[in-house]
Amino acid sequence: MNAATPTSLPFALVPVALADRSYDILIGSGLIAWQASWAGLPAASTAVIVSNTTVAPLHAARVREALQSHYRRVLCVELPDGEVHKDWQTLNLIFDHLLANACDRKTVLVALGGGVIGDMTGFAAACYMRGVPFVQVPTTLLAQVDSSVGGKTAVNHPLGKNMIGAFYQPVRVICDLDTLDTLPPRELAAGLAEVIKYGPIADGGFLDWIEVNLDALLARDKAALAHAVRRSCEIKAEVVGGDERESGRRAILNFGHTFGHAIEAGMGYGAWLHGEAVGCGMVMAADLSARLGLMPAAFVSRLRHICERAGLPVRAPRLDATHNVERYLELMQVDKKAEDGQIRFVVIDAMGSARMQAAPEALVRQVIEAACA
Amino acid sequence: MNAATPTSLPFALVPVALADRSYDILIGSGLIAWQASWAGLPAASTAVIVSNTTVAPLHAARVREALQSHYRRVLCVELPDGEVHKDWQTLNLIFDHLLANACDRKTVLVALGGGVIGDMTGFAAACYMRGVPFVQVPTTLLAQVDSSVGGKTAVNHPLGKNMIGAFYQPVRVICDLDTLDTLPPRELAAGLAEVIKYGPIADGGFLDWIEVNLDALLARDKAALAHAVRRSCEIKAEVVGGDERESGRRAILNFGHTFGHAIEAGMGYGAWLHGEAVGCGMVMAADLSARLGLMPAAFVSRLRHICERAGLPVRAPRLDATHNVERYLELMQVDKKAEDGQIRFVVIDAMGSARMQAAPEALVRQVIEAACA
User: Fold this and answer.
1) Across the interface, do B340 and A157 touch by the CB < 8 Å criterion?
2) How do residues B100-138 score in pLDDT, each as one tens digit?
3) Residues annotated within a binding site of A
4) Facing residue for B95 by CB, picked from A92, A157, A334
5) What architecture is domain B185-372?
6) Over B195-225, what HEC string results?
7) pLDDT of B209-219, one tens digit each?
């Protein structure tokens, strides 16, 4: 494999059309070392790589080398690793570093890591001096297919996940598939949850493709991964392009997330990976769709089976010994999608088609009880 | 005076044109109690007044009463008063309150107070669930003529003022001139600094008007205040409308602010009022304009005299016993307007006309030495 010629390997470019905030997603092998990946970024004297103590040792040196051709000064901040550190205190380490090094308002931030690093770096970029440009270099499958695209940035608050954040778009996303080689199996599965999600909500044919190619994806076959990342990004880009600030259709991307956030919050952030919670939450949301009479029971079994094959948990955890259902309902109330006190869910109303809908509490209780059984 | 009929008193409406982020500034007496001031705001179940322990006792009850006609639930958060509290810890009190009360993403925040409250509430609105609408009800002259208009929101960082923030527009600004009746004289003067600023940078005739009407303004004559606030907002709205994110011309609004920020930071935030620092900084920036050969010395004397009459300090403080000039230069380096290590200043190149320009360090040193003498 020659890292200098990624075009000889699976390579794709997905444009995200958002007027003056448009950008490209590059997908392929060897992209970090490929100079063209970094061409045409905003001019500045300084670029700052933001990574964590797990990812930086694996990839930061090559990113630094690539950036040094374009920026006079390349700095690196290493944050502690993990969802438990996705908070204001850790975010402030970025600000401290930028200010201590007199970084100006043209400074380019480069997020090198998974979803936590991308969300925090993006939010730091949104807020530092009221906005500096940033590049996403996602190193997990979940970040490549979901969190690095679309401009949602945030940190957690003790009372809720991603409660403090901004819509702020990167200037480029560089998905180097080689970074997935070192990804722990559990994180690969978590990423597959978001890949699988795009099928039911937007493209039934893609779900068929996933069913056929799931073993290749689990074996990290580059051609299969390239297709999965590209198709996921295409769907996400199309949805986000029509509804950047999630006033309408974009919400369908949260399929499985209302239940999933309750699991994440109830177990304590970081106990379940986000993608694991979403995988389980998707099966629950599919079950709700069936109980609402929108989809056949066979759809729920099929989705559960695909998630199981991907290595995802499909049984929901108990969040409270005596008041489990109430605990779920309580946690879902403070979820961002709760408006005027009514919980709305993303449901599937036909294969490849999703919509937002409020559900009777009795049905939601049945879903939780069945999933935790 | 009948608060229910503000149209019988000085009243003006200034539109701010920013595409889908456009809004109106209402200026007049009795506006808080006037129901029409609050008509047509975004629908929601909850409005949250954010104020401080000084302003809330004076005005929060009337704001609450007005809001109760439009929102089922009206909450109030009282923050500690002062620039020293313009930090993340205080901002987080707003988030804590919103989350503890299960406020959703439609919740409308209402900033009731001066520039600190407006900046923090605006930033909280920008970040809470990635953005909720907010209304500015500025209760200081400085906030009415400057900080409540244009969408700059921020908190301070120990290493720099307003370093963490966002461009985020309010949905309405309600400038009730009656709130200025209780304003301490020092804060009135601080507000006049920003009013005076608009003359040299954009409208020589307005500076003439200020010179003639300064005594009426100091006596809080409502007609004079209405004109001063309206003309200031018109100029700011025009400048901001052409350059929302300060990539170009908007920077002229920072006339006096580079020196001013050094004074504020060097003295410790809160020791000098922002407007006082800007007043002194304007005289220094005028002096720099003269030393660059752009303006006659008479302009500097005239501006200094107007600032003195307004009750503003025109002698700069010493920031260091032995290395005073170096301390100023050091503090100005980390100012947001420093790009690529070069300090650029807003200078006046003709009455009513400003531009950005880098200045030789030797001249800047002369300005600091003269101002501190």
Assistant:
1) no
2) 999 999 999 999 999 999 999 999 999 999 999 999 999
3) 81-86, 115-119, 139-140, 152, 161, 179-182, 194, 257, 274
4) A157
5) Up-down Bundle (1.20)
6) HHHHHHHHCHHHHHHHHHHHHHHHCCCHHHH
7) 999 999 999 99
pLDDT interval class at A341 (50, 70, 90): low
Give dist(CA A231, CA A12) in Å, integer: 10
Q: Are strands B73-79 and B46-52 parallel, antiparallel or unpaired?
A: parallel
The span from the CA of A314 to the CA of A283, in Å, is: 7
State the nearest Cα–Cα gap between B336 and chain A, in angstroms. 6
User: B338, A163: Cβ pair inside 8 Å?
Assistant: no
Find where tokens 């009135």 sit. B188
**Cβ neighbour number for residue A1 with a 10 Å cutoff:** 10
Cβ–Cβ < 8 Å for B84, B96: no
Backbone angles phi, psi at A149, to 5 degrees: -110, 130
Which of A297, A296, A359 has the alpha carbon at shortest distance from A328?
A359
- Residue pLDDT, tens place only, A217-226: 999 999 999 9
B166/A164 touch (CB, cutoff 8 Å), yes or no = no
At a CB cut-off of 8 Å and minimum separation 6, what does B68 contact? B74
B152 assigned to a ligand binding site: yes
Catalytic residues of B: 130, 152, 194, 236, 246, 250, 254, 257, 261, 274
Q: Do B245 and A131 touch (CB under 8 A)?
A: yes
Query: Is B139 annotated as a binding-site member?
Result: yes
In chain B, domain spans: 6-182, 185-372
Query: What are the Cα distances from residue A27, in Å, to A37, A175, A182, A226, B123?
Result: 10, 5, 17, 7, 35
Among candidates B280, B270, B272, B117, which has minimal Cα distance to B197? B280
How many alpha carbons lie under 13 Å from residue A115 in its C-beta half-sphere?
25
Q: Domain B6-182, CATH 3.30.70.930 — does that match?
A: no
Contact in structure between B253 and B201 (CB atoms under 8 Å):
yes
Q: How many CB pairs under 8 A join A and B?
A: 98
From the CA of B114, how many Å to the nearest CA of chain A? Answer: 20
Helix A185-202 with A222-241: angle, nearest 10 deg: 50
Residues ≥6 apart with Cβ < 8 Å to A43? A106
Residue of A nearest to B71 (CA): A340
The pLDDT confidence band at residue A2, using thresholds 50, 70 and 90, is: very low
- Residue B254: phi and psi, rounded to 5, are -90, 15
Q: How far apart are the first and last CA of chain A?
A: 48
Contact A131 B96 (CB under 8 A): no
A-chain residues near B338 (CB < 8 A): 102, 104
- Is A129 in contact with A105 (CB distance < 8 Å)? yes
